[in-house]
Design a protein that fits this description.
This protein is mainly beta. The protein has two domains: about 40 residues, N-terminal domain of TfIIb (Single Sheet); about 55 residues, Roll (SH3 type barrels), CATH 2.30.30. It contains one helix and eleven strands; from the N terminus they run βββαββββββββ. The longest helix has 10 residues. The radius of gyration is 19 Å and the shape is elongated. The N and C termini lie far apart (about 40 Å). The mean pLDDT is about 90.
């Protein structure tokens, strides 16, 4: 028996298949198999070179980045250790020495 994905709305594991649809009996959400595959692909976060990033990786900044609300700049080549991947526009939460907690976009870093 194939393993069906959890519901994207309520995360219920009790999903079932009805022809081309996946259905959640807990919340009633319906979605297609293609949407489930697309969501799985979208969950993979890649750096500027196309390498897959994981929680805890060390990355290097590939472009000077201005910090909003201050005159600070994150310089090219700055190493950022122990990143945490999150959902949203900025996909990386991290702490940079001398600047503090920040959110970065994965397109401006490369895996070290």
């Amino acid at each position: 028996m194939s393993e069906l994905p959890n519901c994207p709305e309520c995360a219920s594991e009790f999903t079932y298949e009805d022809r081309d649809l996946l259905i959640c009996p807990s919340c009633g959400h319906e979605w297609t198999k293609a949407a489930a595959a697309e969501a799985a692909d979208a969950a993979i976060i890649r750096d500027a070179n196309g390498n897959e990033l994981q929680d805890g990786d060390t990355v290097t900044v590939v472009k000077d980045l201005k910090v909003k609300g201050s005159s600070l700049v994150v310089k090219v080549g700055t190493k950022v250790k122990n990143i945490r991947l999150v959902d949203g526009d900025h996909d990386i939460d991290c702490k940079i020495d001398g600047i503090g907690a920040m959110q970065l976009k994965s397109e401006f870093v490369k895996k070290a």
